[in-house]
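So, is this right?
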Amino acid sequence: MTQYFLTVPHDSATEPTMESMQEFDPAELAAVFAAVDEFNTALKDSGAFLFAGGLNPPSTAKTIDVSSGETRVLDEPFVEAESYVGGFWVIEATDEAAAVEWATRASHALQCRIEVRALQEEPDA
């Protein structure tokens, strides 16, 4: 089976966090959390779930660069963009269609876009 990376985009201008989400309508936030919990449970029950996580915003990133021969630690993301990966799931699916179905369910739960990409596999020897 192939592993897939399902990503949740966030807006770089607002950099939403768990703390900032507390400003949302409590009933709407509870509904989203319940929908995501239901999605995660379905993933786990099916055996497709490998792991998931949320990421802190890019403003908290450090970029390490040794390409010049010296170690440089930069207090910045490696790239600036309009949106960034705010959270993710790594799942295992029989094919891309199955991964897209899981991403569709995640999109319904979060009410946002979800990107699906297969992880690269080692080439056959």
In short: Residues 2-24+31-116 form a domain with the Alpha-Beta Plaits fold (CATH 3.30.70.1060).
